[in-house]
Amino acid sequence: MPTYRAPVDETLFVLNDVLHVARYNNLPGFAEATPDLAAAVLGEAAKLCEDVLTPLNRVGDKEGCKHHADGSVTTPPGFKDAYNKLVAGGWVGASAPVEFGGQGLPMFLTVAIREFMYSSNIAFTMYSSLALGAVATIYDHGSEEQKARYLPKLISGEWSGTMNLTEPHCGTDLGQLRCRATPQADGSYRISGTKIFISAGEHDLTSNIVHLVLARIDGAPAGTKGISLFIVPKILPAADGTLGARNTVSCGSIEQKMGIHGNATCVMNYDGAIGWLVGAPHRGLYAMFTMMNAARLSVGLQGLSLSEVAYQNAVAYAKERLAGRALSGAKFPDKAADPIIVHPDIRRMLMTMRSFNEAARALVLWTALRGDIARRSADPREREAADDHMGLLTPVIKGAFTELGFANTVLAQQIFGGHGYIAEHGMEQFVRDARISMIYEGANGVQALDLVGRKLSKDGGRALRAFFSEVSGYIKEREADDAMSALTKPLGNALSDLQQASLWFAQNALGRPDNAGAGATDYMQMFGLVALAYMWCLIVDAVKAKALGDGGGMRANDKQVLARFFMERMLPATATHLMRIKAGADSTMALPAESF
Ligand SMILES: Cc1cc2nc3c(=O)[nH]c(=O)nc-3n(C[C@H](O)[C@H](O)[C@H](O)COP(=O)(O)OP(=O)(O)OC[C@H]3O[C@@H](n4cnc5c(N)ncnc54)[C@H](O)[C@@H]3O)c2cc1C
Fold it and tell me: Is residue 457 a contact partner of residue 440, using CB atoms and an 8 Å limit?
């Protein structure tokens, strides 16, 4: 049975010493989130995750969700009790707006908490994550009446939310969407059509489910410009939130799937269901982007979370499992064999995982902090810069974290040898659960295209220039610091690779877009590596500064070794990515489709 300890100290170290979040105490909600409060909140979240959610992870995988003849869905045993605890603790709305019953705490705290929750039980955590996306979307685009009716119940966790984009014939290409919305005399719409793969579409955890549905108003233009967004509640609420009649939306079936068995993936049938327009007609994709961006960051976080929990279990196993002798001579001659942690190949895998996890935590919390600044700062220029950062880094985090996170669950499984392949130790579940994060919320290939095709050139490349200038400015500042050169030199080389790749696209992809498409995934991965390497520099700066104060000890040394490992063993891949990008699309696209 896998175990999990939430990395509370590591998270507090990132927040307080690497990101210095106290600098932003002028932002609403930040002054309340003192280091003591953050420590207390994360400590409580850790207890919930370790004691309640972790033990349910295997149960959820084994038992799965059940679809019944009346269309209802039951979640695995124990999920409802755990959900009630989540609601009772006020965990769902920790960062939600105070005026609708949330606690208004910075989003970085919610992201930190969600890291722990996904590590403990990703399938369970998805139910409430979708509600957070619905909250953000209704808050940003809904009418005052919609906010008053839906937000308090979503924020408390009494109701949950879903996002309904995918249809049987289209997931990525939403321009083909067929779901219809017919206007009614009272201002509402009747929604008809089928949505598939809808996470948490039906379940027994909440008294109501608020579906956010993309549909085409009768007579609307074809393509993405004719899509609108609707609120379609499972049960129609009165203005005071009391529940009325059942709406004509139902779950036709749930999918049998590779992982996340505890989360119901539903076929949803809308049979003239009553819905209300959110935002302007035909601007549905624009409004839904609020939910998709929140979800993309959240899915990127899943990559880190599963890598972290898989790593923790792999370390424990590597210290116990006896096999062979250390190449440098027996380390435990009194035992039948040395523990496998003495072997360089096992160390390679453990270091690969940990050097990703720690830098990834810093990067996702930094990005969440920028998200807070983008929403809460009074300074428009600060808001704009933070928003640019979010836009640029969201596809990077979604794509690079989920690829590396999945690869790390495979490494952890490998450390268990044959015991990783059988179900007993739970390692194969992490592999299965992690795989979906590369596919949903926009498959990773599409994230890469978003990065290369839209984000690089957006606003004349302003976000990209700001990122390059921040990293190169940092390297320049440390030029004379010999002690840091083992980190800043490789970072400089990798940044140069990334800059060359960006320039190559500018020169070679405008006339031939296939060149961008063929290199986009490499670009996304190299961007992720550069951003993670930059995080390692900031982490080492932080431990050095801390060492001056309290002696630092083992942790300072650990971090420096991990940073060096990342620079020596992970970051050089940017050179390969650059070579692939510069090879262009010729060999990739040369064969006609009939040759395959
Ligand atoms: C378990 C699970 C949960 C899900 N939850 C939800 C949910 O809650 N709500 C929801 O709406 N959807 C959900 N989805 C759907 C998911 O988001 C889609 O499956 C995903 O976006 C991909 O769409 P698709 O499956 O139609 O693949 P397609 O769009 O058919 O894509 C197939 C492949 O082609 C690639 N591709 C497509 N277009 C392009 C292009 N222009 N250029 C290059 N490559 C391209 C894709 O990257 C992918 O690799 C879920 C799916 C699963 C499996």
Answer: no
Q: Coil, helix or strand for 247?
A: coil
**Nearest protein Cα to ligand 1, atom 42:** 446
Neighbours of 294 (CB within 10 A): 23
Instruction: Please give the backbone phi and psi of residue 244, each rounded to the nearest 5 degrees, phi first.
Output: -110, -125
**DSSP per-residue letters across 421-432:** HSGGGSHHHHHH
pLDDT tens-digit map of 164-202: 999 999 999 999 999 999 999 999 999 999 999 999 999
Selection from 498, 489, 513, 504 nearest residue 464 by Cα? 498
160 Cβ below 6 A of ligand 1:
no
- Is the CB of 436 within 6 Å of ligand 1? yes
**How many CB atoms sit inside 10 A of residue 31's CB?**
11
**What is residue 270's three-state secondary structure?**
strand
Question: Distance, CA 423 to ligand 1 centroid (Å)?
Answer: 28
Pocket test for ligand 1, best of 446, 515, 588 (most atoms within 8 A of CB): 446
Q: How far is the CA of 216 from the centre of ligand 1 (A)?
A: 20
Give the SS3 label for residue 170.
strand
Q: What is the mean pLDDT of the chain?
A: 96
Residue-level pLDDT at 548? 62
Separation of 279 CA from ligand 1 center, angstroms? 25
- Dig out the tokens for 434 from the structure: 């992690």
Written as one string, the DSSP assignment of 366-395 is: HHHHHHHHHHH-S-HHHHHHHHHHHHHHHH
211 touches 268 (CB < 8 A): yes
Query: Do residues 491 and 537 lie in contact, with contact meaning Cβ atoms separated by under 8 Å?
Result: yes
Taking only the tens place, the pLDDT of each residue in 307-365 is: 999 999 999 999 999 999 999 999 999 999 999 999 999 999 999 999 999 999 999 99
Give counts: helices (H), strands (E), the chain: 19, 11
Is 75 within 8 Å of 204 (Cβ atoms)? yes
* Cβ–ligand 1 contact at 198 (below 6 Å): yes
Atom of ligand 1 nearest to the CA of 257: 1
Element (H, E) at 250: strand 249-254
Q: What is the rounded CA–CA span in Å between residue 24 and residue 543?
A: 21
The residue written with tokens 């939306």 in the block is: 249
10 catalytic residue (yes or no): no
- Catalytic site residue from 441, 470, 477, 594: 441
Protein residue with least CA distance to atom 12, ligand 1 = 166
Instruction: List the residue whose alpha carbon is closest to atom 49 of ligand 1.
Output: 443
- Specify the DSSP element, H or E, that contains 299: helix 284-320
Query: What is the best residue among 440, 521, 524 to mutate for testing ligand 1's pocket, by most ligand atoms within 8 Å of CB?
Result: 440
What is the predicted pLDDT for the residue at 551? 54
CA 193, CA 180: separation in Å to the nearest integer?
6
Q: Is the CB of 442 under 6 A from ligand 1?
A: yes
What are the residues whose beta carbons fall under 8 Å from the beta carbon of 442, sequence distance 6 or more?
172, 292, 296, 398, 450
Q: pLDDT tens-digit profile of 205-226? A: 999 999 999 999 999 999 999 9
Taking residue 492's Cβ as centre, other Cβ atoms within 10 Å add up to 19
- The model's pTM is 0.97
Strands 243-246 and 189-199, sheet pairing: unpaired
